[in-house]
Amino acid sequence: MSTREVDVAIVGAGTAGCYAGATIAEAGYDVLVLERKTEEEAGHIACGDALKGADEFPGAIPKSTLEPAMTNTEVDHGRFELPEHDTVLEIPVPGELAVIDRFEYGKAIIRGAKEAGVEFSYDTVVQDVRQDEGRITGVRAKRKGDPLTVEAEITIDGAGALSILQDKADLSAATFDTNVTYSQFCSAYREVVHVEEEVEWKDALVFKPTQRAAGYLWYFPRTGTEINAGLGFQMNEQPMKLVEDLKRDLATRPEFEGATVEDKLGAALPTRRPYDSAVAPGFMAVGDSAGHVNPTTGGGIAGAAYAGEYAGEQAIGALESGDVSEAALWDYNERVMDHYGGRYAALDVYNVMATAVDVSELTSLLVSLPGENLAEALYSGSTDFGLKLKLQAAIGSFGHWGTILDFYKTKRHADELLEQYERYPDRPSALAGWQRERDAIMDRVYETTGAEAKY
């Protein structure tokens, strides 16, 4: 058995892990990233390939390092196809958006982290955590089948959705969020489709509902002739039935006639609010491991990059002070909640509503709302509805007024939730009181929507 001693151990060479590692290594600390894949395969994961906020990424890995992986920077809107209404909604996408080659992007962020001084251990499968009186002190793993123990002052969990580290660690004495079940997660499947002629919608992200409200199909153009085609669906649904929806749609779209398919992959991702707390003594979770994903779109790259930067900066401060307690790491939670955590929690309210609404009711609601307001709701968690807009929506949703009324009530609860997240506590001891107030708002959401409690 071999043993390594480092300042910070990071599990997972994804976006969050690489940005955290680069941030810490640039400050002169020893950082080891443990990655289960081989060096050749590291960075190759299932992803929708859409990168929102490409112009505002943290600087620990220079944007110039990422740009070669950005294969389509012409996308400026979403295209929502609603066959039941014979309608296509064109919805503007705020800010810069790029469609990427995810494998090339994965290799780029690893390269950027290495240039910052991060060491990588490939073929390394983490199997357990090391823990001393509640504090996480590293991990136990196997590298190419040989036992490896890593001792670290701080361990960062970037292992992805439903991380094994959180299963193995005893976090009962910490504020770390353990209110996590598989039903709060989504399975995603995607394949890369090559066509001979450019698709007409190469400047759009295409979305289409499945036959149940459990998921949606997507077509994201990496280039005009290379399309990332996939779907996402809640884990409490049967995957093969929903994958058949994608196969049927591909077979009936004329632009895909004669297409070739490659690189079929699947993955899990959170479609829930961010963890209430992602810290414990000597431990932080980042990216998918902490629910840092837009729960309505599944977009998680930008959130993971910032979570990595914030965790990295928090780790530096803790190492400098010699204090890796929960309280010493707490500001990481605050920064995440202030940046996008509250927004994502508000967006999750609409996910909750969707579980209690029939697909036809949901699409009727979408058709009745202007694209600008849908875009604002999808990305900010809220939007303004004046009297004129309310009347337009009421007319457009004739026959579905009960749903539109519930939507407006739900929107008010989402706005309440945003305000509650603005009051996120500045210390661990105040979290329980904040959670009680937040949960009271969620009770009103469940009462309005008729949905089963998600948390």
UniProtKB/TrEMBL annotation:
Taxonomic superkingdom: Archaea
InterPro entries from the UniProt entry: FAD-bd, FAD/NAD-bd_sf, Geranylgeranyl_Rdtase_fam, Geranylgeranyl_reductase
GO MF terms, alphabetically ordered: FAD binding; oxidoreductase activity, acting on the CH-CH group of donors, NAD or NADP as acceptor
Residue span(s) of domain FAD-binding: 5-306
Protein name per its UniProtKB record: p-hydroxybenzoate hydroxylase
Species of origin: Halalkalicoccus jeotgali (strain DSM 18796 / CECT 7217 / JCM 14584 / KCTC 4019 / B3)
